[in-house]
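Fold this sequence, please.
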Amino acid sequence: MATYKKRGYKPKTKVEKEIEVEDTSSSTTAEVFDTLDESANKAEEFVEKNQKNIFIIIGAVAAVALLYLGYQQFVVKPNQGEAMNEMYQAQKFFNDAVTATVGQDSLYTLSLKGGEGKLGMVDIADQYSGTAAGNLANYYAGMAYLNTKDYQNAITYLDKFESDDETLAPMAKGAIGDAFMQLTEAENALDYYIEAANLRQNEFTAPTYLFKAGITALNLNQASKALDLFNKIKDNYPSSPEATQAEVFIGKAKAMSN
């Protein structure tokens, strides 16, 4: 068998060729295992040299997870309860202001600043930020400022409000549009009206803000955009109160386009 490995010797028989293949295969396999062993040794050396850092990283990740769970359990939940307790009176002031025939501004101000020994929406939004109650306080504060004609603060607080609610989410965006209209910033108002209309496809808010957007576009001499907005009301919300009015403004938009 040794003669097969002499320099210049070429196997001639089938058996000799098979033996040579086996020898080559064995050699290749051995090289692979040697490479794997070498890689494994390097990996073990890396772990040994860096295990302190690895344990520190693992410990840090675990600590962050525990801190988050602890924050949710011992900070967020208690704060949420406290915030809701504080909000009750401020919310009552707000609701009273909505239904009042006189003294509305005073009631909205009490809702904002607080009264009866309770915090107002502004302080609740600040002190309980990160809670659902604190977030909702941003909405109430924004709407109270809008009703007391403090439009910049209305925009500030409404912009902080985040919601997946079917009506509150678009109403907050639409109210920002109203505030910009009062500040004679019609371009910004138009953007927010369109955003509010597109945020939820329901029969209550969508046609309302499409209509406001259409009127605003007409006032900005954007007839083609206005026509598109009014047609959306007609096609998508034919049963809405805005649909009847949209017919009239479709004619006006077409006239302006000619």
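Residues 14-99 form the longest helix (86 residues). The beta strands are 114-115, 118-119.
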